[in-house]
Design goal:
By secondary structure, this protein is mostly helical. It is built from six helices and no strands.
């Protein structure tokens, strides 16, 4: 079994030059008719590690394509798709993918770690949402009271 990095490892983005090497390799293979699964995976992985949302979205899309066609890579793809969605703050989708992975591998420490990060982000967003609603209600009450 291939070891997957803990979610915190993905915060280390590749340098522009490193990502460019992966992009050029992928595009070179595509121009020859077909990119290998490994080249596509490497490029998608590099994109997901990027701090740029557009890169992350493209990386997730590529990983989803690999997931659909390569049964042997599904485990890794589920993890990186979930990680990419987490980084894009698409938490409900990230949860869906990490839970699919955990349903197959309940003891996967990397997936457990990622699930914890996602759950914390969902909770934090929930608190922020409640604070915003509470603040809006208080302002509304003040406006009505001043009339």
């Amino acid at each position: 079994m291939t070891e997957l990095p803990y979610a915190a490892d993905a915060e280390d983005a590749l340098s522009y030059d490193e990502l460019e090497v992966l992009r050029l390799q992928y595009e070179r293979e595509l121009s020859q008719g077909h990119a290998s699964v490994q080249t596509k995976f490497n490029y998608a992985w590099g994109l997901i590690k990027s701090p740029e949302r557009d890169h992350q979205a493209k990386g997730v899309k590529l990983m989803q394509e690999i997931y659909k066609t390569e049964a042997l890579r599904r485990r890794e793809c589920l993890y990186y798709i979930s990680l990419g969605l987490y980084k894009m703050q698409e938490y409900s989708e990230a949860q869906r993918y990490v839970e699919m992975l955990l349903s197959k591998e309940p003891r996967n420490l990397q997936a457990q770690s990622l699930k914890e990060l996602i759950d914390k982000a969902v909770t934090k967003d929930g608190y922020i949402g409640m604070a915003l609603v509470g603040g809006a209600a208080a302002i509304g009450t003040l406006i009505i009271a001043s009339l």
